[in-house]
Amino acid sequence: MPKVRSRQEKQIRNNGSAIDMARIPKHIAIIMDGNGRWAKKRGLPRVTGHRAGVSSLKECVRQCSDLQVEVLTVYAFSTENWGRPVSEVKYLLSLLEEVFEREVRELHENNVRVKVIGKRENLPASTLLRITEAEALTAQNTGLVLNICFNYGGRAEIVEACKALGREVKAGVLEPDGITEAMLSDHLLLKDCADPDLLIRTGGEMRVSNFLLWQIAYAEIFVLDVFWPDFRPEHLYKAIADYQGRQRRFGKV
Ligand code: FPP
């Protein structure tokens, strides 16, 4: 992975719109959409788009590491994606396994900590094995945290947190009126990460699709009219430059 480049070089690579290295978003979340449409446009099967999307993801991880982003969270498979044709679901599961098998060593060498966020219950044993191996290998790494949301749903995540709080109430260790936002946050799957500062969605659609519903409360949203397999470093820079031009008020004036 390349070392952090000079600010001057960053400006050139970003096509002239400067990125302030002192204000890089700490946490970037991405809805990697448009794989299917990318493939369709080329007369290829949808799954070819997913495979092409892996290259975009790899480059994006490299860039985020390079820019010293602290956390990158990507949406790879939603709980709703089980409703896709069985062949596509199987492909996505085996793609995750393949990607982990092939890439985890390089991620580890680059100090990336990999975490898979989502329900584990209905994943095949072979997928679970790859996930636990990758997480264990990279657990002590101190560089970029790469959260791969897989079998993830934002509403389900909030429901699980409510159930956990409900159990604490039932056990008498918590008063219902004592429940705070911080307590609910502490029961979410991303409890160890600050909320995303920037949410990027590729593919041009203006929705959040059940992604990080709680955590994106104050995220800046950047929708890009480019399919995920066509996502390149300049798109990431564009999103960051746009983010840096916004005024974040967090509900205040
Ligand atoms: C959405 O595009 C994309 C997905 C459901 C899968 C995302 C997966 C990757 C980018 C590959 C990396 C994967 C792993 C397992 C690490 P879509 O299929 O909804 O596209 P469409 O909106 O054009 O139909």
Describe what you observe in this structure.
The structure is a single chain. With 253 residues, the protein is an alpha/beta fold. The protein has a single domain, classed as Decaprenyl diphosphate synthase-like (Undecaprenyl pyrophosphate synthetase), CATH 3.40.1180.10. Helices cover 42% and strands 14% of the residues. The protein has eight helices and six strands. Strands 3-4-2-1-5-6 form a six-stranded parallel β-sheet, sandwiched between helices. Helix 5 links the parallel strand 3 and strand 4. Helix 2 packs across helix 3. The longest helix has 24 residues. The model has no long low-confidence stretch (mean pLDDT 93). The structure holds farnesyl diphosphate. Farnesyl diphosphate binds next to helix 2, helix 3 and helix 4.
Question: How many strand elements?
Answer: 6
* Model regions low in confidence, pLDDT < 50 over at least 5 residues: none
Q: Which cofactors or ions or other ligands sit in this model?
A: farnesyl diphosphate
| Order of strands in the sheet with most strands | 3-4-2-1-5-6
Share in helix: 40-55%
Give the helices and strands as they follow along the chain: HEHHEHEHEHHEEH
Mean pLDDT, all residues? 93
Estimated structural class? alpha/beta
Biggest pleated-sheet summary: 6 strands, parallel
CATH-defined superfamily: Decaprenyl diphosphate synthase-like
CATH topology: Undecaprenyl pyrophosphate synthetase
Summed up, the helix count is 8
CATH class category label? Alpha Beta
Q: How much strand?
A: 5-15%
